[in-house]
Amino acid sequence: MSSARILVFPDCGPRIGGGHVMRCLTLARALTVRGAACAFAATPETQAVLEAFGAPDIEVLPIAGELEQAAATVANWASSWDADWVLLDHYFLDAAQEAALRDGRRLAVIDDLADRPRGADLLLDSAYGRTPDAYRPLLPPVAAILTGPAHAPVRPEFAARREASLARRREGGHLKHVLISLGLTDVGGITERVVRTLRPLLDGLILDVVIGSGAPSLAALCAEAKTDPSLRLHIDSHDMAALMASADFAVGAGGSSTWERAALGLPTVSVVLAHNQRAMAEAMAREGLILTADAEAAGFEARLTDAVQQLIGDAALRRAMSEASAAASDGLGAERFADALLA
Predict the structure, then answer these.
(1) Which CATH number belongs to the domain containing residue 65 in this structure?
(2) How many domains does the chain have?
(3) Is residue 185 predicted with pLDDT exceeding 90?
(4) Burial 220-230 (b: 16+ CB within 10 A, else e)
(5) Which DSSP symbol is given to 41?
(6) Which of 125, 147, 169 is the last residue of a domain?
(7) How far is CA 72 from CA 22, 121, 240, in A?
(8) One domain, residues 188 and 279
């Protein structure tokens, strides 16, 4: 068992959602299982996610203010909390701010851009098709690099349901459940937009919609659910593995939840919600793992409708997508990351 102390600093907020916090929380849980102590340096937005989904053995250290002030506070926490490592999942810190976090300790970085130098001892990028070569010129020579979906942070409950979920998909059968899950923060009210677009196509199916308690779409969807018993809302759901395992296909955000769905072989229309999701979604679509629809593109609703119609009408396509996506991620990436960091 390890006695390492890891301070985690994820980005979070309306513009970026809660995915960074959730994947860091997954990694922190894998580390604490191995005996490490973990704490989150948390803005109010991060604290809200941790209050809904955090673990009692993970400490929360508050930070506030604009980015420059927040970064300085995190560096102070790293010293006063006596961290051995800082785990950073943030796009917007500059080199000097990262160096302050690393001062006297080690730095682990989660990245998916490969667009700038990082002073990291350990880097994780689980993007599909990513290889260590993309980062070697950007990192210190001795840095360890973990890339590809085999290292994607996926909570253990997904691996636990994997075998049964894949067996059910191989058997096939009639469509019954569709899952819509576009992020807890519901960036730009995308969940209501998607539900209203797809509702006419899904007559006779149960539509499970996952949404956060502070989501812009929540009020409208609650009103609609009162008159439509086939529309089921799951607010701040703690049982995504069960929902994904029971769904026949999904419309899901293109972030880290991609690999939760893949671990369970869930055929998916992946909705691109941010520019950094686009390249990976396109690569996965070319290889037959997913279908895609870009929320920022003209004709989004038409593309989304077409993709969902493809899944509804083609059982062979659903089966092929299930097999291809499940082959990419076995759900054990968080454990591999924790072992690498603690080694």
Answers:
(1) 3.40.50.11190
(2) 2
(3) no
(4) ebeebbeeeee
(5) E
(6) 147
(7) 23, 20, 35
(8) yes
70 within some domain: yes
Residue owning tokens 């080690």: 106
Question: 120 and 169 share a domain?
Answer: no
Whole-number Å distance between alpha carbons of 23 and 33 = 16
Contact call for residues 247 and 208 (beta carbons, < 8 A):
yes
Sheet with strand 59-62: strands edge to edge: 59-62, 37-42, 5-10, 85-89, 106-110, 122-125, 144-147
211 shares its domain with 249: yes
CA count, 13 A, side-chain hemisphere, 200: 7
| pLDDT digits 0-9 by tens, 78-99 | 999 999 999 999 989 999 999 9
The boundaries of the domain holding residue 196 are 156-328
Percent of the chain past pLDDT 70, that is, above it, reads: 100
Q: How far apart are CA 229 and CA 211, in angstroms?
A: 17
Structure pTM? 0.92
Handedness of CA 195, 199, 201, 206 (dihedral sign): positive
